[in-house]
Amino acid sequence: MSNDKVVQPFTIEFNLQTGLSPKEQPLQRRLSDLRGMVRNEEVLEKMIREEDLLVYEFYDMHSPETPFEVQYGTSITYPGKVGDEYFMTKGHFHNVLDTAEIYYCLRGHGYMLMENPEGEWDAQEMIPGAAVYVPGRWAHRSINVDSDEPLITFFAFRGDAGHDYGTIETKGFRKLLVEKNGEPEFVDNPRWKS
Ligand code: MN
């Protein structure tokens, strides 16, 4: 990029196996960043004391925050569980609530969990090749249900959409994804209050 106002054509590489870019630094979120957001806080604290594991990382490529540009990058959610709850991203609404987003799954197996202020929720399965459309108004969270592989997605959304974590950080999503008898199962979040 030559200056703040004009973006010149450029290319960024994201590795298909790791999801990482050799030149850019991802933002990282660890177990301690999920405090207040998981079903079993006791197990979470015990895990943090042993090792504050990396749960996910993602890129902010700092595209200009205008409606004409596109924010994009990869998101990598690592395999693991807090108790029976799969590793996940915090999830967020967009500040410009009506802006949509695309997540294209490059590797792994997981779900895009979504909900909107109108009270609906939805989950789309993510396997390599699946392009999940997250409409405007829907909060979204990536969840990795594989026991070995990272869940890697490429995302793109409007340049000025921004992130709103506030409502998610205080009450989470309506649904949780937990492992029951070796299978993923969506259950009600006991902490969620309307
Ligand atoms: Mn988003």
Give a short overview.
Helices cover 8% and strands 36% of the residues.
What does this structure look like?
The protein is mainly beta and 194 residues long. The protein has a single domain (27-188), classed as Jelly Rolls (Sandwich), CATH 2.60.120. Helices cover 8% and strands 36% of the residues. The chain is built from two helices and 13 strands; from the N terminus they run E-H-E-E-E-E-E-E-E-E-E-E-H-E-E. It has helices at residues 41-50, 166-171, and strands at 27-30, 54-58, 70-77, 81-82, 85-86, 101-107, 110-115, 121-126, 131-134, 139-144, 151-158, 175-180, 183-188. The protein is globular. The structure holds manganese (II) ion (MN). Residues 92, 94, 101, 140, 157 line the site of manganese (II) ion.
CATH fold label: Jelly Rolls
Q: What's the average pLDDT?
A: 95
Largest β-sheet summary: 6 strands, antiparallel
The coarse silhouette is globular
Q: Count of DSSP E strands? A: 13
Total number of helical segments?
A: 2
Could you spell the SSE succession in H and E letters? EHEEEEEEEEEEHEE
Span between termini: 44 Å
CA radius of gyration:
17 Å
The CATH architecture can be given as Sandwich
Whole-number count of domains: 1
Helix content: under 10%
CATH superfamily, please? Jelly Rolls
Biggest sheet strand order reads 1-2-3-11-6-9
Bound molecules: manganese (II) ion
CATH top level class name: Mainly Beta
Please mark out the parts with pLDDT under 50 across 5 or more consecutive residues, or reply none: none
Question: What structural class do you assign from the helix and strand content?
Answer: mainly beta
